[in-house]
TrEMBL record:
Organism: Hypotaenidia okinawae
Pfam families: tRNA-synt_1
Name by which UniProt lists this protein: Valine--tRNA ligase, mitochondrial
Cell compartment(s), UniProt: Mitochondrion
Family, as annotated: Belongs to the class-I aminoacyl-tRNA synthetase family.
């Protein structure tokens, strides 16, 4: 304190040896210093008291035997309030701080809304969780969703509102079936060997084994959901809702059956929805690895070849295409009606060099004169634009590629070749005949299946469709009138673009795992009775049960139910159909339950802006069609989480991060082991390992739930896509440490 020897001055005066004595103090100054000494004495007494309490032996705690996801050996019995104790531990530990609270919250029932619920929806927050895939694992995008929703519901609870947040999981038809089939192949089995019932038993066993992981992750993230109301899109109440929705919409004429072009995955052997199509942009000649092919396949090349003109005049017409294998299914060629190069070809025809078919030359305004040679081939059975032109000109539909991706209805040597092997064979054959006119690099977008990585093939298939035009008008008007609010409001432009230009939705999938379509093909077992084709919609009926469908068929054809034979459609409904019902099926619809009356329509939907159309719009359309109400009044759309380099999260890049790995920490070796337990092929596995080495050379340190949630909220304030750097989460873990030390100092 710098007290001078022999001076006898007060502590803290800072008098040096040899200095003259300080001037005498005034009474006010002496009184102020006396108060300081008194405060210091009280602080020292309190500190001594705390030290003595810490030194006393504590009563033994009951051993915690439950290995719950939040225990971490803290010792608090499951469901009991945590005894924090004073003084706090000297260093901040996320595991210590966050442990045991969740079990206490659940036991107290704080996530369940109290009764009675206020009438009229005043001071009520009702919300459903966007259901993640049941056999999957949450990633940081899910963590962002959960963080924002949990912030909202806790805020409203603290304000005294009645809050209900309903969790749920999605059966994820394509993703789940693909994983189980891959596991079966490892055992030397296929789903057709097991049969439909045996395969479904395998899937249910897989679901029961893996399905609880997501709920563990949600609890670790602190999601304060009402677990007593948790739903699964294939549990009995939700299955009844799906059947009811299909039957009502079919009987109202909104669901119909038609043969059209679909996105077909030859690897999955199923049509897939638009959201499962990834457009891979190519700058030119590119080699891509395609499932089922040992060597890469070349794309991004524009091939020009000649069709010989019929007639004595001779000559040729050179066409350009990026898919030369489909020329085996050509039924016409087309040029622009105002192109001066081809005015002399009006009324002319060309001869197919391999099949001998005579193909008309059409003059169609859709042709781009500046693309290639200005002349294009038409394959209506394998191209959407060609299909539309073919309908206008009543061209034949010649399918030359089957469900497995092999060539059919073509001459040897192309018959039964895989489609991309046939591509090479066609080019060689054209070259041999002197008809190949050149190849040039061509920027293009290749449609890939996001589930299998397969290059999608447009195939003609009979499918079930939902008419969306009138439903979309209602959804668009709801936003225009302000009845449904989109936040940020800039997303309204995207909403109107989708709704005003919507096409009918293909809702059937060629899978076994999912809601089997409650539609039946009718055969009348009476002499002289009409015999229907599968494409004839009159011979399809729907029903909540087979007995109901039989009665409907008997009424339609004026026969007795006993003479009606039914065969149920093998296909299942698109996963998005059942998840589109979730805002009201979660509350028991079509039953008139108390939850449905109290909590539907919901207050708010919070989700990522990337599924604004694929999920949000479909929920709105289905709710308006089936309940006459909007499913919620407000939609909050958050940013998309990408890695620190701005790349999309992808297992093959090794940048998909499990939130639990950020919360608990994980070594680089642990990250590698997770990859080895995934479904990546060897090349993707090695690329993913290298990505993890670059991004996480020392693994991921333990950050805790609080730091992760804080970081996600802070990123969200930017209002754009999130390039998440784990280092920033570590920074917020240090911030939590400062809060901890500040609390220790105050206590």
């Amino acid at each position: 304190q710098g007290v001078a020897v022999g001076q006898g001055v007060a502590v803290g005066q800072g008098v040096a040896v040899g200095q003259p004595p300080a001037p005498p103090k005034r009474p006010a100054q002496l009184q102020k210093e006396a108060k300081k000494r008194e405060k210091l004495e009280r602080f020292q007494q309190k500190l001594e008291r705390n030290r003595s309490l810490q030194a006393q032996p504590k009563a033994p705690r009951r051993e915690r035997r439950d290995p719950g996801v939040l225990s971490y050996g803290v010792g608090t019995p499951l469901g009991e309030k945590k005894d924090v104790g004073v003084p706090l531990p000297p260093s901040y530990s996320p595991r210590y701080v966050e442990a045991a609270w969740y079990g206490w919250w659940e036991r107290r029932g704080v996530f369940t809304p109290p009764a009675p619920v206020p009438e009229g929806g005043e001071r009520v927050l009702s919300m459903v969780l966007p259901p993640p895939n049941v056999t999957g694992s949450l990633h940081l995008g899910h963590a962002l969703t959960v963080t924002l929703q949990d912030t909202l519901v806790r805020w409203r609870r603290m304000q005294g509102w009645t809050v209900l947040w309903v969790p749920g999981t999605d059966h994820a038809g394509i993703a789940t079936q693909a994983v189980v089939e891959r596991r079966l192949r490892q055992r030397g089995l296929g789903r057709h060997q097991l049969g439909r019932d045996g395969f479904l038993r395998e899937v249910w066993a897989w679901k029961d084994e893996k399905g609880d992981r997501i709920y563990q992750q949600l609890r670790s993230l602190g999601a304060s959901m009402d677990w007593d109301r948790a739903c699964f899109t294939m549990d009995p109440p939700r299955s009844r809702a799906v059947t009811e929705a299909f039957v009502r919409l079919h009987q109202a004429g909104l669901i119909y059956r038609s043969t059209r072009l679909v996105h077909w995955s030859c690897a999955l052997k199923s049509a897939i929805s638009d959201i499962e199509v990834e457009k891979k942009e190519l700058g030119g000649r590119t080699l891509l690895q395609v499932p089922g092919y040992e060597t890469p396949v070349e794309f991004g090349v524009l091939v020009a070849f000649a069709y010989p003109l019929e007639g004595d005049e001779g000559g040729e017409l050179v066409v350009a295409t990026t898919r030369p294998e489909t020329m085996l299914g050509d039924v016409a060629v087309a040029v622009h009606p105002e192109d001066p190069r081809y005015q002399h070809l009006r009324g002319r025809r060309v001869r197919h060099p391999f099949t001998g078919r005579s193909l008309p030359v059409l003059h169609e305004p859709f042709v781009e004169r500046g693309f290639g040679t200005g002349a294009v081939k038409l394959t209506p059975a394998h191209d959407q634009t060609d299909f539309e032109v073919g309908r206008r000109h009543r061209l034949p539909l010649l399918s030359i590629i089957d469900e497995d991706g092999r060539m059919v209805n073509v001459p040897p040597p192309f018959l039964n070749l895989p489609r991309f092997t046939a591509r090479v064979a066609v080019l060689e054959a054209l070259k041999e005949r002197g008809l190949l006119r050149g190849e040039t690099p061509n920027p293009m977008a290749v449609p890939l299946c996001s589930r299998s990585g397969d290059v999608l093939e447009p195939l003609l298939k009979p499918q079930w469709y939902l008419r969306c035009g009138e439903l979309a008008q209602g959804a668009a008007q709801a936003v225009r009138r302000g009845e449904l609010r989109l936040r940020p409001p800039g997303h309204a432009r995207t909403w109107f673009q989708w709704m005003d230009n919507i096409r009918d939705w293909c809702i059937s999938r060629q899978l076994w795992w999912g809601h089997r379509i409650p539609a039946y093909f009718v055969t009348i077992q009476e002499p002289g009775a009409p015999v229907g084709e599968e494409e004839d919609e009159r011979f399809w009926v729907s029903g909540r049960s087979e007995a109901e469908a039989r009665e409907a068929a008997a009424r339609r054809f004026g026969v007795t139910p006993e003479s009606v034979s039914l065969r149920q459609d093998e296909d299942v409904l698109d996963t998005w159909f059942s998840s589109g019902l979730f805002p009201f099926s979660a509350f028991g619809w079509p039953e008139q339950t108390q939850d449905l009356a109290l909590f539907f329509p919901g207050t708010l939907l919070e989700t990522g802006h990337d599924i604004l159309f694929f999920w949000v719009a479909r929920m709105v359309m289905l709710a308006l069609a089936l309940t006459g109400q909007l499913p919620f009044r407000e939609v909050y759309l958050h940013a998309i989480v990408r890695d620190a380099h701005g790349r999309k999260m992808s297992k093959s890049l090794g940048n998909v991060i499990d939130p639990l790995d950020v919360i608990r920490g994980i070594s680089l070796q642990g990250l590698h082991e997770q990859l080895e337990n995934s479904n990546l092929d060897p090349a993707e596995l090695e690329r993913a390992r290298e990505g993890q080495k670059r991004d996480f050379p020392n693994g991921i340190p333990e950050c805790g739930t609080d730091a992760l949630r804080f970081a996600l909220c802070a990123y969200t304030a930017q209002g754009r896509d999130i390039n998440l750097d784990v280092g920033r989460v570590v920074g917020y873990r240090h911030f939590c440490n400062k809060v901890w030390n500040g609390a220790r100092f105050i206590l």
